[in-house]
Amino acid sequence: MPSRNDVERITILSGFHTSTEKVKSILKILDDLYPDAKCSLDYQNPLQLLVATILSAQCTDERVNRVTPDLFRKYPTAKLFAEAPISELEQDIKSTGFYHNKATSIKESCKALEKEYGGKVPADLDLLVRLPGVGRKTANVVLGVAFGIPGIVVDTHVARLSERLGFTKQKDRDKIEQDLMALIPRERWILLCHQLIQHGRKICIARKPKCSICALRPYCNYGLDESTLKA
Hints:
By secondary structure, this protein is an all-alpha fold. The chain has helices at residues 4-14, 20-33, 46-55, 61-74, 78-83, 86-93, 99-117, 125-128, 136-147, 156-164, 173-183, 189-202, 226-229.
């Protein structure tokens, strides 16, 4: 870990500006830490990923992955999700929390997929966000993971780390997404989001970040703050 003198030197040199060199340094560290970072949701096709991502809101991926095997066997197509009795679908996903809203989003989205796109998930951001219950975060997950189309997924971890690292001062997730798109090379968008999510889960935890063992600390506004130097 860097000494306090090292931290002060880095602070003076960087000035906490989000310079190209700072971004490159952060990306290099993330590559070293998480070279194979990927989506932790289990899925076999774009429809399954869409449903799993909807279920993952306010729920751990681990729990979602426990629910989806039976769910996907029961409802292998958008048509079957669309035709499912809402009360039955709610019970199928109840353990993921917020199951009333999630069941409605899944059912209504699948109705739209069946009606407009022959039951297939479109590989288009504008079309995806028109689906009931599908925002830009969910759409970008599907585009990036299922179709390999670059996008920035701003979940709670990406939002938190982006602010702490000085990538953005915004709180609104759409604005954070725009800041990251302007700052990060397009070919890095998909991987970066997975890396930030992993780092957020493992090290840069919301309430008690492990700053003392964080390799990104020399480049982190939060980690170099006086209140966290003793962490």
